[in-house]
Amino acid sequence: MTKTLRKKTPERAKILSALCLGALILYALARIPWIAEHVFARGVTRWLSFLLNRLTNVIPVSLYEIAAAVLVAGGVVLLVFLVAFLAKKNYARAGIWLYRTAVAALAALLSFGVLYAPLYARENADAALGLKTDVTEQSLFAAAEYYVSALNETSARLGRDESGNVLPTCGFAELSRKLNDCYDAFGGGYFADYEVRPKAVLLSVPMSYLGITGIYFPFTAEANVNVNIPCYEIPCTAAHEMAHAKGVSRENEANIVSYAVCILSEDDYFRYSGLMNAAAILLNALPDGQYETLRGRLDEKVLREYADARAHYEKYEGFIDSLSSFFNDLFLKANGVPSGTASYGETAESLVALYEKIKNAADC
After folding, report:
1. Which residues of the chain carry a pLDDT beneath 50?
2. How far apart are CA 295 and CA 135, in angstroms?
3. Same domain membership, residue 149 and residue 81
4. Can you point out the beta strands (E) in 165-324?
């Protein structure tokens, strides 16, 4: 037994070295913009994601949830066995388990390097949306004023529940279909043109404690949505995760894509979702005096919904949420996003550009 293990040790070292070298080469290539865009984003990554998407679209439940549960359970089992082996001084068996774990981790890293990592180095989504402008103090205020006015008008056309919060105009399946139609309207080849069916997560409450409103799982090409969030957030959250599935990895870009999808939609529920986010972001970007002026114009129903949403999220804040945010920050920075989780809010300039695009279209 000992001789067999000794013979296998160099072989295992070679396998681990080959996997590490492969990962290094893959991630180095994925950082080169032209390769990231034309070899991966519009080529290998898109086709593999399409095949995975076709398989998982027909499964009604989220495979991400199952994978997460298996991973947690597997981690606990691994830890128990390692402790048992070490307690019995069975270092050979412990080494085998660690080797298998390392191989599995490197295989996952390589898969991620093909299925998602290259998207961080591709062309900016703003260009695909036709968003470009020089932001001034005047244009920032004008954009914020527009979004506040549009939000009030859209709010007046929607029904509300007994708590004063907006009611959805469609079910989750219909929401998915409509969002796919919105993406189809963009065209141009930047976004993958296959249908993405976002999935409502059954374990939404645990996700809330982790501070996760949605997550794209590249290993199954699934856009997962936490439905334990304010109703008005669901269209934007679904559109955000769909943006990841269609080739947009950076969080700020997925945000602006989701805002554009919803605001440009003809569905008032979608528009309300996008406008609630856009108005809040631009109001917070204004100087204090201008902020107070425009905030004072917001309809009382809108202000109440903002307050209800804030109270909802505060219920789930705590150590677990902070820990999850910490690791997400590390993950984003490791993938070439220097601002980490702060990148989620880096959309003010793009929202001004979206306003300019809407205004120019109306003037034509």
Report:
1. 1
2. 21
3. no
4. 199-200, 214-217, 222-225
**314 plus 166 within the same structural domain:** yes
The whole-angstrom separation of Cα 347 and Cα 147 is 14
Q: What is the pLDDT of residue 187?
A: 81
Q: Which residues contact 240 (CB under 8 A, 6 or more apart)?
A: 214, 254, 255, 257, 258
Residues 83, 9 share a domain:
yes
Which domain-ending residue is among 96, 121, 146?
A: 121
**Domain shared by 93 and 170, yes or no:** no
Residues 310 and 178 placed together within one structural domain of the fold: yes
Helices 91-115 and 45-57: crossing angle, nearest 10°?
100
- pLDDT reported for residue 205: 95
Instruction: Note whether 268 and 302 are same-domain residues.
Output: yes
Q: Which of 121, 136, 152 is the last residue of a domain?
A: 121
Task: Return the structure tokens found at 56.
Answer: 């998982």
**CB of 176 closer than 8 Å to CB of 323:** no
- Domain holding 183, by residue range, is 126-363
Give the full edge-to-edge strand order of the sheet including 199-200. 199-200, 222-225, 214-217
- Among candidate residues 211, 242, 248, 206, the one with its CA nearest the CA of residue 224: 242
As a residue count, the chain comes to: 364
Distances (CA, A) of 295 to 118, 143, 291: 40, 14, 6
What distance in Å separates the CA atoms of residue 256 and residue 16, rounded to the nearest whole number? 40
The predicted pLDDT at position 336 comes to: 65
Q: What is the pLDDT of residue 135?
A: 86
Question: Which of 42, 40, 47 is closest to 26 using CA atoms?
Answer: 40
Are residues 189 and 144 both part of a single domain? yes
Question: Which tokens in the block code for residue 25?
Answer: 């080469």
Alpha helices in 41-130 (DSSP H): 45-57, 63-87, 91-115, 125-129
Structure tokens at 195: 């249908």
Q: Is 364 helix (H, G, I), strand (E, B) or coil?
A: coil
224 Ramachandran zone, left/alpha/beta (phi>0; psi -120 to 50): beta
Q: How many domains does the chain have?
A: 2
